[in-house]
Structure formats: structure tokens, C-alpha cells
């Protein structure tokens, strides 16, 4: 199987890895993606945090399965990057972190996780975030 873990922090990477670890078999591939808006909307600290998040996935799962990491800083919406990557690499499952929010918070601020859940063409595992 091919999994896509969409991460933005080391804490989330650990949470997502824990959620899929028991499902992994020899020959599986984990694709870890970090997508940032880029341009003036992204700081050096956010870029470094994204790299750290991807490195954590490699450290957590790389000894048991193949791990492929990608950081996108192209000016795209993260949802678009994640869904396009999933389609381009024909992943079997997208794994994302979700935060508990009020209905008003979801309506006012939007959510990449919500957009992925609504627009994905493949199964999505939504894991509660601990951060």
C-alpha cells in the first residue's frame, strides 16, 4: 500500500506515524508531504519546521518501510498540493491531522483538513491532533 501523510509539525508527524505504524507491511511506501503557501506568506521558521516534520516521519518509519518526503513551497493552497500529490502517486490512503473546532470556527476560518475530507477521491484517515 501507499500512504500519504500530510504534516506540518514534528508533533503531528509523530501522531500520524503512530496511527499508521501497525498497518504497515513490507513493501509499503509512505509519502510524507509538507505544503506551505510560499512567497511573503511563509517564514524561514515555517520552512524549517516543515523540514523537521518530514525528517521525523523518516526517522519514525524509515527503518521498516520506504519513506519518500516532499516539501512544496509553490504558492499553492496546501489542500491542492496534497490532493494533487495523492492523485499523481496513486496513493491508497491519505492520513491527516484534525483539530477539534467549534462549528463557527470551521465556518469562519476554513480548514485544510475539512477541504481534503470533502474533496479527496481516495480514503482519508483523520487522526486527532495532539498539538
Summarize the structure.
The protein is an alpha/beta fold.
Task: State the CATH architecture.
Answer: 3-Layer(aba) Sandwich
Helix content: 40-55%
Main β-sheet description: 5 strands, parallel
In terms of quaternary structure, the protein is single chain
| Ends distance | 28 Å
As a percent range, the share of strand residues is 15-25%
Low-confidence stretches: none
Domain count: the total is 1
Strand order of the largest sheet: 3-2-1-4-5
Per DSSP E runs of 2 or more residues, the count of β-strands stands at 5
What letter string, H or E per element, gives the SSE order?
EHEHEHEHHE
Alpha-beta content class: alpha/beta
Classified in CATH, the superfamily is HUPs
Radius of gyration: 14 Å
Contiguous helical run count: 5
The backbone outline, from C-alpha atoms, is: globular
- Write down the CATH class: Alpha Beta
- Overall pLDDT, averaged? 91
CATH fold-type name: Rossmann fold
